[in-house]
Design goal:
single chain, about 230 residues, alpha/beta, 8 strands, about 25% strand
Length: about 230
């Protein structure tokens, strides 16, 4: 890392890994936590949780969860990144909430990280839309497409070469994961509502499900306005 021109500090701490990582991040006033995760089963994640996902739930700064494939060959174990260029092609799911806006503010600055394309996604939750009359759903679609178009124009002004807009109906986390695969993105950037770890464990959330089940790296952004939402 020093060979890449970075200033490096090392700390050796004792304690529960997730809690210690969050504590050190606060003490060092870092801007980003980068974690690695491999594919535990969903049941294992729900019952035990991984260090990465515990950090995502409790950190006060953005957390990048890199995804790796574990390859075993001739007695050797190797972790291979699933995306060689993490910031090249980005998916940004949004529900237009303050927390999503905090994530969008990060997306706007990704051109300097090498981002060439951003896919903006909004999912109309079918569980909510099913209770609405068709004409109201159509109006929601028109309004949300207009919002996405304004976001697209903003990203173009920030220098993102290509921006694509998607509006879908379904379960938000399911459609987010589907879009990530179909669009072959290298990173998903989304906001967190910053709920308590206990509430998230039992009720789940879009960002939790995406972090757990995505095959692509995920950057979870927590704006100060997300806490207590």
């Amino acid at each position: 890392l020093e060979g890449q021109g970075l200033i490096v500090r090392m700390r050796l701490e004792v304690g529960p890994p997730a809690s210690v990582i969050v504590k050190v991040a606060d003490e060092e006033h870092v801007d980003l936590i980068i974690m690695g995760a491999q594919g535990m089963s969903l049941v294992q994640e729900l019952l035990l949780g991984s260090v990465a996902h515990q950090v995502v739930r409790t950190a006060s700064v953005p957390v990048l969860v890199e995804k790796f494939d574990v390859v075993r060959h001739l007695g050797h174990v190797e972790c291979r990144r699933r995306c060689a260029r993490t910031f090249h092609r980005v998916l940004h799911p949004t529900d237009f909430s303050p927390c999503a806006h905090a994530a969008f503010n990060v997306v706007k600055r990704l051109r300097t990280a090498g981002t060439e394309e951003v896919v903006l996604l909004h999912v109309q939750d079918e569980r909510v839309m099913a209770r609405r009359p068709p004409e109201q759903v159509a109006e929601f679609d028109r309004e949300d497409l207009a919002r996405l178009e304004e976001m697209r124009k903003t990203l173009v002004l920030y220098g993102i070469p290509r921006v694509k807009v998607l509006l879908r109906h379904g379960i938000p986390f399911v459609e987010t994961l589907r879009a990530a695969e179909e669009e072959d993105v290298c990173l998903i950037v989304l906001g967190s509502r910053g709920r308590s770890p206990v509430a998230e464990l039992f009720t789940g959330s879009t960002f939790e499900n995406v972090v757990r089940q995505s095959r692509r790296p995920v950057l979870v952004v927590r704006g100060s306005q997300c806490y207590g939402a």
